[in-house]
Amino acid sequence: MRRKAILASIFLLISTFSLGAATYQTLYSFTSWDDASNPFPGVIFDQNGNLYGVAAWGEINEGVIFELSPWQGRWNFSALHEFDEQDPDGAGPIGGLVMDEAGNLYGTASYDHGEWECGTVFALSPSADFTVLHYFNCTDGNDSEATLTYRNGSLWGTTKSGGSSNQGTVFSIDTSGGSFQYHSFTKKKGTQPLSAFSFWGYGTTFAGGGKGQGNIYRMDPVKGFINVHNFNAEGKSGYAPMGDLLTLNVGGVRTIYGTTSSGGAGGAGTVYRLKETQPNSDKWQFSVLYSFTGGDDGGNPMAGLTADAAGNLYGTTTGGGAGGWYCGTVFKLSPGTKNKWAYSVLHTFDADNSEACDSTGTLVFDKAGNLYGTSQWGGDYFYGNVFEITP
Fold first, then answer.
1. Which CATH number fits domain 14-390: 2.120.10.30, 2.40.40.20, 3.30.70.20, 2.60.40.10?
2. Count of CB atoms within 10 A of residue 176's CB?
3. Of all helices (H) and strands (E), which one includes residue 334?
4. Is there a contact between 154 and 199 (Cβ–Cβ < 8 Å)?
5. Which of 126, 162, 282, 391 would be 142's cystine partner, CB 3.0–4.6 Å?
6. CA 243 – CA 241 distance, rounded (Å)
């Protein structure tokens, strides 16, 4: 079984658009045979500079958990765990990994070959011991495709479907496998949550909500799901959000950044911001920072954003760009005066040069300020890769 992920005023607050010239390097290209293929989420670092991630499928398996270790100027690939083709403990890992203080990795499998086939939550120890923490039974969730969130021995996540209305769930579980709890979405409150559930209690849904095109929601422990913003296919805010939310304290003000994969003034998705109007009020002002056109600037961002210490935002698009394959871009948004943001393309992916194509995972910085990411396709064998961008 092979499955893929689905593919207050609002203004275009862009002051400049430029094409940059960052340095691109492929660290590893997936072959689909000896390893796996199609890494959907991004990678994470450990304290020693090693990278960890998942790839969803393969010709002789149904995904792997992998490690990339730097050694003498190159990166060595290791498959830490391989999901077998009839594995009852999980298959098709699409959501990203998280790591706890002891170096244990946690993630989800989008389905399994066990009793319910609705997916699992798993743990992998530094000694490569694989443990299933929870088997979804479809009533409590099905098809988890979002990256987990970890803090103080607890994990939070979402499932794309399942729950009481089969519209998806938000769940929590201890890293020991106990205290599993979940909350079910309904269409009016959102459906198909593909993004991570943040510690502030916020997330997005790909569809549903008040306008049917996805929403930003808050999970209230008493009231349940609360619509914070409803996306509209006809509005300038964009619609169909997929990437994880970036939550930051900017100048003492809680701020949330995100992307939509479609719509907006340019027609190919947006970068948006929620800025809290009063401290800890959960009341927000929504604004669009940039609208993609799908041309040289890129289009259809499906990944979340990351930020540097100066407040610049970085992300990827899955389409557009100056290359002939329209494989997407790596972009930067820099804050300016009077709430204007300068947009620049750091790199356009070029599949003709065996580069990345269709990058859907959030970028991550190393200690030197270089960016690392993955692509579903592209690389030497066009089964996806891990890449580095030096801004």
1. 2.120.10.30
2. 11
3. strand 329-335
4. no
5. 162
6. 6
**Dihedral sign computed on CA atoms, order 13, 16, 17, 22:** negative
One-character DSSP codes across 340-359: -EEEEEEEE--GGGT-EES-
* Torsions phi, psi for 233 (to 5 deg): -60, -25
- 294, 320 contact by CB (below 8 A): yes
- Could you tell me if 380 and 354 are in contact, meaning their C-beta atoms sit under 8 angstroms apart? yes
d(CA 136, CA 121): 8
**CA dihedral for 209, 214, 215, 219, sign (positive or negative):** positive
Q: Are 345 and 329 in contact (CB under 8 A)?
A: yes
**Hey, is 158 helix, strand or coil?**
strand
Q: Encode the chain (391 residues) as per-residue pLDDT tens digits.
A: 333 332 233 333 333 455 667 999 999 999 999 899 999 999 999 999 999 999 999 999 999 999 999 998 899 999 999 999 898 999 999 999 999 999 999 999 999 999 999 999 999 999 999 999 999 999 999 999 999 999 999 999 999 999 999 999 999 999 999 999 999 999 999 999 999 999 999 999 999 999 999 999 999 989 999 999 999 999 899 999 999 999 999 999 999 999 999 999 999 999 999 999 999 999 999 999 999 999 999 999 999 999 999 999 999 999 999 978 899 999 999 999 888 999 999 999 998 889 999 999 999 999 999 999 999 999 999 999 999 999 9
Domain ranges of the chain: 14-390
Cβ-based neighbour number of residue 329 at 10 Å: 29
Which run of H or E residues covers position 275? strand 270-276
CA atoms of 354 and 239, how far apart (whole Å): 31
Q: Rounded to an integer, what distance in angstroms lies between the CA atom of residue 33 and that of residue 119?
A: 23
SS3 189: helix
Number of Cβ within a 10 Å radius of residue 340: 14
Residue 60 identity (one-letter amino acid): I
Q: Cβ(311)–Cβ(252) under 8 Å?
A: no
Instruction: Let me know if 116 is exposed, middle or buried by CB neighbors in 10 A (0-12, 13-18, 19+).
Output: middle
Is the Cβ–Cβ distance between 90 and 122 less than 8 Å?
yes
